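Predicting holo structure, NDP bound.
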Amino acid sequence: MTATIIDGKAFAASVREKVAQHVTRLKSAGITPGLAVVLVGEDPASEVYVRNKGKQTVEVGMNSFEHKLPADTPEADLLALIEQLNNDPAVHGILCQLPVPDHINSEKVLNAIDPAKDVDGFHISNVGLLATGQKSMVPCTPLGCLMMLREQHGSLSGLNAVVVGRSNIVGKPMAALLLRESCTVTIAHSRTKDIEALCRRADILVAAVGRPQMITGDWVKPGATVIDVGINRIPAPERGEGKMRLVGDVEFESAAQVAGAITPVPGGVGPMTIACLLANTVTAACRANHLDEPEGLTA
Ligand code: NDP
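Done. Tokens:
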């Protein structure tokens, strides 16, 4: 079998298109959704993410507010900025780019964001709402994975799902979403025994581990849908000395021979994450103004 390749780039473009349509609808009602992104320090990868987020926010017609603070910003100053953004009616979504410098308590910062503006879905209230199956802001990466799975399967009810990885930003919310879709969910992690056999039982296999190409084709159930969240940089001497390339947590070539559908890296889950950030911002703007939820953009 050769798997269908799930084109995350094209899917993300369709999500952005839907977001842009909702932005137009909101603007005609006098509301311009606004996303504030806060970056503390000069981490080069974070700077690239923040630039991309700002660019795509503007492209869909929303306002982008960027706040770049020096690495030695006191925690109290960051909390004061968040308070100011919480109270600003032009701001519907707030994101604090992680990681923050060591002297800042990231949990304190994330929990200072108004849960209604928490477009990353990391506030403890949103975590609790998601865990109890209530309406919440859903973390962007798992939301993107869910959208792709729904597109692939329609109903996910009754399917066996295995999520490899139990982080707060991917594994746990992904498992909560799949449970809400009535999947039978198992979470695997570094202490899981006989993980290969467990993965082989999965109709839906989500890999969020951070270990290059750990999951090979012989871990995959024939016909399964494989969602590879991993982004790993490995040496690529074939491209020249010192060159690197991106790979996922799944060994794509062997897994694609067995799976029914699979996301590539790059071009799978990655592009969906920012698209879902924009989707969450438009959702937050609708909720703040007591308007209908944007169809197809929420969990
Ligand atoms: P974390 O490092 O926070 O979590 C990794 C998880 O994998 C942990 O739960 C860990 O288990 C588990 N794990 C580690 N080694 C093994 C192993 N040998 N067998 C089974 N489980 C193992 O990572 P994140 O969740 O933040 O990210 C995971 C990957 O996804 C990374 O590659 C990251 O770059 C990528 N990512 C991609 C995004 C995107 O937009 N596409 C967004 C966010 C992340 P334990 O808890 O026991 O230590």
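The pocket of NDP is lined by residues 141, 164-167, 169-171, 188-192, 195, 208-211, 229-232, 269-270, 273 (CB under 6 Å).
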